[in-house]
Amino acid sequence: MKYKIFSSSDTESSYDVAIIGSGMSGLCTGALLSKQGKRCILLEKHFKPGGYTHTFKRNEYEWDVGIHYVGDVHNVNSASRKLFDYISEKRLEWNKMDDNYDTIVFPDGKYKFEAPRERFIENLISRFPREEQGIYRYMALLDRASQKSISYYKNKVLPPFLSGLLSPIQNRPYYKFSDQTTFEVISNLTSDRSLLGVLTGQWGDYGLPPKQSSFVMHAGVAKHYLDGGNYPIGDSSKITESILPVIREAGGDIFVNSGVKKILIDKNRAYGVVLESGNEIYAPLVISSAGVMNTYNKLVDSFSRPALTNNLSKVTKTHGHLCNYIGLKGSPEELGLTTTNFWLYPSYDHDKNVDIFLQDQSNPFPVLYLSFPSVKDPEKLKYLPNRTTMEAITLAPFEWFKKWESQPWKNRGAEYESLKELICQRMFEQIYQHLPQLKGRVDYYELSTPLSTKEMMNYDKGELYGLEHSPSRFRQRWLRPQTPFKGLFLTGQDITTVGLTGALFAGLLTCSSILKKNLYKEIISSRN
Fold first, then answer.
1. SS3 424
2. Which has the minimum average pLDDT: 58-67, 246-255, 306-315, 451-460?
3. What residues have CB less than 8 Å from 52, skipping those under 6 apart?
4. What is the pTM of this model?
5. Mean pLDDT throughout 514-527?
6. Domain(s) of CATH 3.50.50.60: residues in the chain
7. Fold of 4-57+69-93+233-312+465-524
């Protein structure tokens, strides 16, 4: 599918909505508004659309950049599946992964996270028989935290005055969970630190170890995968390709290499955007999925509004990450690989692992996440049966790479490349300890750093997950679709939570707020 760059000849077109960013939330917002008869233009800074759903190729290999697995969507009656089906008109298909969706690996043993829920529980109890009661209590808390989230997110859609009035009723039950860290909640259920380390073995999915993360974020991720994981058939680029026709059929379009420099605002009302090219696009409604930091620090004049500046000081950006994109010669069967993801840890104490790594990057990686995208995609297995892709991911602060920030992409010098090579070899050493059969099968590899994330995703510090999912983050009632500017709305993971489905439902919340309609009830709760 070909994508255009916005040019001066396109300024003659008129649009009802200008959407900044073409990631999952921008796509969902555009599709939902298009189905309401709105003509939407999606403006993407990168040369490929899709945000974290896009893919890239090197030689005969292709990798996703952010979609590693998605829960619930194999169930046609789940909320996320219904919403995906609605905005893609059922063009988007999913492949169910093996029941063993994650394996958590420590120096002294491996723990399988297997679907369905009952098997997940059985596996835990078999390894921790003395903790059976605590395990069942933990599972119950996952359910309760999820239930209490419904009214919390409903409150974000309401007009500010009504939202404030109802906040004590709608949000207080949620705060009982969100105000506690993951460590605090689980420590009240068990004194076994090994069990705590296992239960929080997916902390990389939301970017904060147990003593820093809010329990609601942990609960959302853990519950999300209890019935297994899925991967889009045809790779994650199919997400954009399946949704875009809905937007185009309503007269809208998507433009790449068309970054937004500024949101046009007059008398407190947004009326369009200025592109980095200088072209102006006018629309009575502007939606930003660029993240709150980018939106308020770069695209609007927040300095004239002390309240906005004060709000931004209350949230923290997440760390960046390193990703080694690896191409392997051979089929998954030859390489002994399945769809299972692996989380490799140096010890059960995730917080300590992170602390010592941040103090000195020569210390062991606090986590090394291994994913095999081509193995999860039946289409890739058909036309590239002897080429297997792999990704190895860990965290990394932006500051470690800041000295090369001003250097151009792919031309940052020998010192930068030498550091990347050192990191790759450290990753391979750990990979071969766990998967020795892969030694000698690596055909290609390429490391991305937080500088890559900044370049491709336009996050100022290369942050992977936007804002930290700490307890205080969930107390920020200003993280909502509405902004202080009329005609300007926010969408994206910053107003909900991290992940593909978090961004997906951010689009639903934003459109519900704009249209003043309960789209959840209309689309998901209906019996269609």
1. helix
2. 451-460
3. 23, 24, 65, 66, 67, 457, 500
4. 0.96
5. 88
6. 4-57+69-93+233-312+465-524
7. FAD/NAD(P)-binding domain (3.50.50)
